[in-house]
TrEMBL record:
NCBIfam families: PRK05988.1. The keyword Transcription regulation does not apply. Pfam families: 2Fe-2S_thioredx. This is NADH dehydrogenase. GO terms for molecular function: 2 iron, 2 sulfur cluster binding; metal ion binding; oxidoreductase activity. Its cofactor is [2Fe-2S] cluster. Coiled coil: none annotated. It comes from the Bacteria. Keywords: 2Fe-2S, Iron, Iron-sulfur, Metal-binding. [2Fe-2S] cluster binds at residues 78, 83, 119, 123.
Length: 156
């Protein structure tokens, strides 16, 4: 934890003095560790002179912040209206079934984290998803399966 605390302090230091430093610090922590460890929140609160409740509130408000390490492959499925109208929910149900884990969870073997997003700016080409930061459109179940398999194959 102390190495983690030192790294976290370095992130805080990089933004200290900024107005509204909390969000940049939280994004910085997520970039540094891949998630935001709850154990670091008191340190962040203390360093930025905020209450723990404030910091906790912001972390839980923004769904972008992860509370635990992500899987090797991160799959974000769009569930906003335009994608819903062309089958996004079918895709979500399929992904949950194939992976054996729910939206917001990582598979037991740590391979894939499944998340939902609300619009990826790819509405005309829905259903859309982002896999490891790459945007994909006009997806069906088979296309999603092969994109995930390909992403995983690259990491084996
Ligand atoms: S609604 Fe899915 S990309 Fe916009």
């Amino acid at each position: 934890m102390s190495d983690m605390a030192d790294r976290a302090r370095a992130v805080v230091d990089a933004h200290r003095g900024d107005r509204g430093a909390l969000l940049p610090v939280l994004h910085g922590l997520q970039a540094e560790f891949g998630y935001i460890d709850q154990a670091l929140l008191p340190l962040v609160a203390e360093e930025l002179n905020l209450s723990r409740a404030d910091v906790h509130g912001v972390v839980s408000f923004y769904t972008d912040f992860r509370g635990e390490p992500a899987g090797r492959t991160v799959v974000k499925l769009c569930r906003a209206e335009a994608c819903q109208s062309v089958g996004a929910e079918r895709l979500v149900a399929h992904a949950e079934q194939v992976l054996g884990s729910k939206i917001g969870q990582t598979t037991a073997d740590g391979s894939v984290t499944l998340e939902q997003v609300f619009c990826l700016g790819n509405c005309a080409l829905g259903p859309a998803a982002q896999v490891d930061g790459r945007l994909h459109g006009r997806l069906d179940e088979a296309a999603l399966d092969s994109i995930i398999a390909e992403a995983e194959a690259g990491k084996a």
